[in-house]
Amino acid sequence: MQPGMTVEAINKNGKVTIEYLSELERRYRWDEFDETRVLIPRKERWLGMLGAYDPADAQPWEIFAPRIVAEDSQLHFDDLEDLRSWLKQGSSVLDWVYTDDGLVIGFARSPERNQVNIEVYQLYLNGKKPSQLDGSQPDKLKITK
Q1: Per the count of CB atoms within 10 A, which of 10, 11, 27, 120 is most buried?
Q2: pTM: predicted TM-score of the whole model, two decimal places
Q3: Largest alpha-carbon pair distance within the chain?
Q4: Considering the domain boundaries, does residue 24 fall inside one?
């Protein structure tokens, strides 16, 4: 994400809003929840990702609010088939919604774990943002800057 950016995404799991507050701080809103998290920067690649995350370490005062597992990263692909495979693989759980230029949002709920997963990715193909991705749903994303 970029400074001043807010993204609202709608998928089968509901509507989520992610707001960029600073390089490592994000505000997440869904249903009646409104939570701010400071993400942890990745110092080395993990599953190809270099960005920031929140592993949702349980805190005693958060027993009534869902744990937020968050990711905000760039993913680089050398091959369009690998990019498509990655989108297909993650879509079954997180129900990705994405734009033609590779902004991907995933939102999933795990009530049994009192957890939500909110993931933001910018995909790159050969070092550049893609220009067209099969299955993109820009109507399910509202981006403000």
Answers
A1: 120
A2: 0.87
A3: 45
A4: no
